[in-house]
Amino acid sequence: MNNLKGKVALVTGASRGIGAAIAQRLASEGAKVIVNYAGSQEKAEQVVEAIQSNGGEAVAIQADVSNPEEVKALFIQAIVHFKKVDVLVNNAGVMITKPVNHTTNEDFDHQFNVNVKGVFNTLREAYTKLEDNGSIINLSTTVNRLILPTYGVYAATKSAVEQLTRVFSKEIGRGINVNTVAPGPVNTELFMKDKPTAMVERLASMNPFGRIGEPNDIAEIIVFLASDAAKWMNAQNIGANGGMA
Ligand code: NDP
Fold it and tell me: Strand, helix or coil at 143?
């Protein structure tokens, strides 16, 4: 399909998990894709190779989204490589699940630095560097609707992302729509790491499909939001959780 032919998409944290699926689905719709990663160079290159072997175009660019200078360089390199950026997907994220009283200063700072400052850094660059009529999609979480113990600081970071999204959507203009997608539990390293099977099954039973999400479930929604068909959807937070909440 060619819904995104002619567009260039920058996906942060696209070396693994949901971001890798998003990068591949955007490319399969005709977009040229920048596969950003922090440390997993080999995995990012594998995503690029998968896109290229499917007839698409992609490049891997390293940048820690929490670092404003690296994000500035990421946009510059992306534009040098593909001439422009139309679609920004702020997918890079980290999660540390601990009760608030066990959360260290480092846990707090790391999650806010990547999840909130990372989005802030890219939005600031996008303000001048994203093409007119582009799209921005930020990743939040269904946890914000569930009030689950141990997710306090993580949920706080994603609540900040949701509010930043709403306000920024009214600031940027130029035909650019800005939305958040809030997945429920998805089968990736971030969610599955150290999770007892019983807890995964309990969370899976909280939606009528009786399963957790797969990265492609989320990628399909991002593809729609990146397309011109979704242009009238702006400043929204879209749940992607099978009906969990
Ligand atoms: P994964 O842990 O599987 O992948 C995280 C990705 O983010 C990796 O590509 C990683 O790059 C990248 N990343 C981490 N830190 C940085 C950084 N500082 N700069 C640039 N990239 C970075 O996560 P998921 O795929 O599960 O999650 C993707 C997004 O979806 C996150 O924002 C998460 O909060 C959100 N989400 C996930 C849910 C889930 O159940 N999985 C549910 C709801 C929301 P590298 O490999 O190079 O380290």
Answer: helix
